[in-house]
């Protein structure tokens, strides 16, 4: 499968679990940003030489800049499942001895995901 037309895009869709505290920061410019960390499972990795598989995760920083997204993000708590749509950005700043950079997802949309109800839980809810 190949790309027949040159198309440039920067779109990210993540679904994962909030890790740690959601924090609002005021930047030196006076801009407000709410930052959170999302843990996203990679799924099972291929078997290694010893035949074992290991599940791993990626921990991804997310930045919410608009006032509506900041308000939504500040209602999130550690362990909540969320979906984030946005774009990958590389941020640069000066710290200590020189320039530093890091990648983060700049959120355009954020919504809480409600865990699926298992048939056992559903049956217990209906019978209780």
Please render the helix and strand layout as text.
Layout (H helix, E strand, L loop, with lengths): L11 E15 L5 E13 L10 E10 L2 H8 L6 E15 L2 E15 L6 H9 L1
Parallel strand pairs: 3-5
Antiparallel strand pairs: 1-2, 1-4, 2-3, 4-5
In short:
Helices cover 13% and strands 53% of the residues. Strands 1-2-3-5-4 form a five-stranded mixed beta barrel.
Walk me through the structure.
- Residues 122-128 have low confidence and may be disordered.
- 12% of the residues are buried.
- This protein has 2 helices and 5 strands.
- Strand 1 and strand 2 (32-44) form a beta hairpin.
- The protein is mainly beta.
- A 5-stranded mixed beta barrel has the order 1-2-3-5-4.
- Helix content is 13%, strand content 53%.
- It is globular and about 55 Å long.
List keywords for this structure.
5 strands; disordered C terminus; 5-stranded mixed barrel; 2 helices; 128 residues; mainly beta
Strand order of the largest sheet: 1-2-3-5-4
Shape: globular
Largest sheet data: 5 strands, mixed, barrel
Radius of gyration: 19 Å
């Amino acid at each position: 499968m190949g790309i027949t037309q040159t198309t440039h895009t920067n779109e990210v869709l993540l679904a994962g679990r909030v890790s740690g505290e959601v924090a609002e920061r005021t930047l030196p410019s006076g801009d407000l940003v709410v930052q959170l960390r999302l843990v996203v499972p990679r799924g099972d990795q291929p078997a290694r030489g010893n035949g074992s598989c290991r599940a791993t995760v990626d921990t991804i920083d997310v930045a919410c800049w608009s006032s509506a997204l900041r308000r939504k993000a500040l209602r999130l708590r550690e362990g909540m499942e969320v979906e984030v749509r946005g774009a990958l950005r590389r941020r640069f700043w000066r710290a200590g001895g020189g320039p530093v950079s890091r990648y983060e997802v700049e959120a355009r949309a954020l919504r809480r995901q409600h865990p699926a109800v298992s048939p056992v839980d559903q049956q217990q809810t209906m019978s209780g």
